[in-house]
Predict the 3D structure of the following.
Amino acid sequence: MKLLVCIKQVPDMESRFKPDSRGTWYHEEDLAWRMNEYDEYAVEEAVRLREQLGEGAELTVLSIGPERVGEAIRKALAMGCDRGVHVLDADAAQRDPWQVAAMIAAHAREKGYELIFTGMQSQDRGSAQVGVTVAEELGFACATTLVGFSYADGAVTAQRELEGGTKGVARLGLPALVTCQLGLNVPRYPTLPNIMKAKKKEVQAVAAAELLEEEARAATTSFHAPAKKGGAVVLEGEVAPLVDQLLGILREKTALLR
Amino acid sequence: METTREIYWNIGHGVVLPMYVLSMAALGVLVWGFWKRLPIYRQGKPLNRFDRYDERVRRMIGEILGQEKVARVRAGGLPHNLFFWGFLILFAGTLLVMAQADFFTPVLGLNLLSGSFYRIFSLVLDLGGALALLMLGALFFRRFVKQPAGLETANEDYVIHQLLFAILLTGFLIEGARMAATELPHNPALAVYSPIGYLFARLFTGFEEASILIAHKGLWWLHLALVLGFICAIPSSKLRHIVTTSLNAFFAPLEPKGALATINLEDESLESFGASSIRDLTWKDIFDADACTGCARCQERCPAHSTDKPLSPMKLIRQVGELAQRSPDAGLIETVGVDAIWSCTTCRACQDICPANNEHVNKILELRRNLTLMEGAFPGEEVRGAVNNVEVNGNPFGLAFAARGEWAEGLPVTLMEEGAEVDILYFVGCYASYDRRNREVARRFLRICAAAGVRVGILGKQEKCCGEPVRKLGNEYLYQMQAAENIELIKGYGVKRIVTTCPHCFNALARDYRDLGLEVPVQHYASYLQELIAAERLRLKPEPFVATYHDSCYLGRYMDLTEAPRSVIAAAGGRIQEMERSGADGFCCGAGGGRILAEEKLGGKISEKRVAMARDTGASLLISNCPFCLTMFEDGIKTGGHEGTLRVRDLAEIVAERLQG
């Protein structure tokens, strides 16, 4: 059984973000890079399934981006993926979700993957479109925001997180794609022998041009910090009216008293 | 009348052959007893502890004869040592008698044991025996009457006490019987030089000479039998420490304190890291169990043990020995327990006080290496997060690496990348870079340097965590990645001297980074400030104040820097009210060994215990010079309810307030 997990390398969210010269995305100076958090859950779940299936299975990790993305791929390999596909794309940050999904679908088509894992969304762009679009393009069954996953007898049982903390369960036949959410698992910390082994695993480099046939459908026109608003309101006066005033604000602007 | 005594008096020279044969047999039992233990030690990995032979022999002889490590704890230590020296005198005397009787007399025809020398010999041996007897009584009292907490007594303790007592007693009885029949009637002037023997001789007066002679002969054989029994019992009882503890003074590491084997990560033949069974430890680690005397000093000083956490350094040493003997393939981590393994603060109090030179800390670190590098384990989820943060942002807080130098904006400091000439590189460390409280300390340090005319450079956002906490959590890989980046950077700038305000950075850079190629001299600021003051580059206007001082483990115990910070405090006008545990005996704040990154979920809070010790001195000011200690004490003062009565401040803050001009 062939498995695919798609990951994205994103800046650490504690970084200091500045718009780039075009003002349509962030400047890459002074950023620390890491694997997208939701993709870590996807890798962990895919590796667990890979371990469950044993010898017959092969797990591929795919990422699109410039040279630095290789680090994220190595980490996924150290966590237990068998091989990597690095779609070398210096302009990956400019692609819209449709293009990214189309590139992944172009790679996955004809490869015989039966199950694809992605994160629920990326921490930087946050469109949450790539996974579902890939499923649509490939004609796969799809379930999103997984907080529970199991595979048996050719079917996936997916526990999903719904609004307000309720849960739903979906059963999917193969082929299928699932997008993973916080709470699904605790991603493993790669062991040193696996880090060493990962250095020798095959990573296939694919030029973006080989996969990219689609035009962008949604262009990002501006990237900027939110306008600074007044951070605090100072209430003054007698205690009794102050209490009413505070209660009013809490009712109106927060969920505390609902 | 000649001043000497007849050796083998009443026994006759006919005993010489059987006596030597029996003694050789006993020595054979002794050697065989240890010989058959060698395969147990050999289950461990090889380790060269036979290098620098002269140095090791000198140290061993010094430790055996001086017994200084045992003396560090007066109760128990003092009677032990006096007993030891008393027994040693008797042993030396016996050897001298042997040499006289079977070598000097028959071969050289020379009698050493005569005249004044005999008088001295006789007196010294008598007093040595008396001392040993007296101290055995004191040890008996401590062992069986008023036992200190943690001291475990086994059945063999009763046997050994009785055996030693019987050996000393029969020795004096033989002497008494001989004197009653010889010196007392024929040469009473000489009896003065055997005062204890004289007392025992009085027991025999009134008996007929024939009876005395029979008693003497019987006692002589009994004494010989007891001594032979003693020799035979050495390898199979706790008496083995006479041999093993002595040998450990030879085997003890000669590396700087705190040195930990740097794993060669380039070596592709390595498939397993750290220790999960005793076979992953070294032979010395297994031997340590035999050298352990069970004195419990380690356990008594352990900050984890004394706050009811499931760690006893003594138990750890013994568990290694038990597994090596009974089930070498059993899981070492399961036997010791992960909670015990993660509880260690690597404060080194156990190892420092151990009179047997046992190495507790590195065993724990090898277990942690296995947990971390082979299992990807952490003591808690908060630590997983912190370690990931170090990996991504070079600091455990997960704050932007690019913000690392922001604390110094507008201060007199050079960013190394800007290339100006500097006198020192200040390796700031994560806490002084990001933690609000410790940023104050960093700023004060810069102010002090400016006042002394020292040009300071920092690496700013290029600096990474030194890697010490993650290394002590077992993550050698991440440590070496951090270290390699720092070292390459520092080398590239051609730095002449590095100063740190963090003892953990100090230990990493000054000692651990040596293995990875950093050779620049590194100092902690306490000793750097002491030098500046001594050279009169830094002038203080002392104002009298009273404080207590906490020795950071990584400064005091690891680096022996106990005087420098005290002299800086004195130069600032401070009078120190010492805590009960200070200097090499200092008590940890709870943050070492990567514990700064972990929540303290088991047992009591170590920081509160230490803060209470500070409070007990009566001083209202606690001075430390480690960002981890400062963080722990700020916390311990709040949760321990000492707010308003005790304040903790860093040495740099104290000094910065007393700058001249």
Observations:
- The radius of gyration of chain B is 30 Å.
- Chain B touches chain A at residues 265, 268, 271-273, 372-378, 381, 384, 387-388, 392-394, 398-403, 461, 476-477 (CB under 8 Å).
